[in-house]
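Notes from the 1:1 (GR / supervisor)

We went over the backlog. Supervisor wanted to see one worked example end to end before approving the batch request, so GR pasted a single chain during the call. The sequence is below; no edits were made to it. Supervisor asked that the structure be written out right there so they could see what the output format looks like.
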Amino acid sequence: MSGPYKDGRPVIGLLAGMGVRSTAPFLDLIVEECQRQYGARQEMDYPHMIVFSWPTPFYFDRPIDPDALRESITIGLSWLEGTGVDFMAMPCNSAHAYFDELAAGVGVPLLSMIDATAGDVPDGVSRLALLATRTTRDAGFYHRALAARGIELVVDEAIQLRIDSVLEEIRRVSDMAAPRGRWEELLQDLADDGMDAGLIACTDLNVLLGSPEPLPLVDGTRSLARLVVQTWLEMRDPAEG
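Structure output shown during the call:
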């Protein structure tokens, strides 16, 4: 362990805040994954984490400056790496448009949300609806990752307009009842249209999730949480148990 920490366990670095309602649900998923993957129960069973909430210049009502966004994320990762973390993750799909460049610019491993999510799409899924921001849709990284598995990623404009509206409402209201209702209607319509599943590729959408959903879902946020805990376990000293 290279940082100022004394107990020998690896420290997770999370560049968060890139999605106004995304950080707390992601931390909850990490807790759930610790319980699922290695039976964490006591407080000391859980990993050390440094969470840097780093809002970035990402907009829904105006064009995004990709250079400014990339520079902001680069600064955030550099700051987080400087705290002595052993590896990092970004619970933000859109930030992965610059993943290769960002990963090359840091000295500790940066986990890929895209690889984790694409690997979690079940066998037998052939038509998958992309539920994401326009920025993520237009970047095309999920298209490329899933094309390798022969999966058709459906991203038509009618779906996107409805997602845009839901995301805008999430950022505007504190009561999630209305956007959750519209979300469930969208999922039901996708199921009726013959989609095999939906891919949640925006961390802000996690605040709307319920059980059961009208359509099977692959959740990119949960996939990244799984990979974070898996990586922590692999890096941990075996003597820790």
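Supervisor's comment: The domain at 11-112+223-240 is CATH 3.40.50.1860 (Rossmann fold).
Batch request approved.
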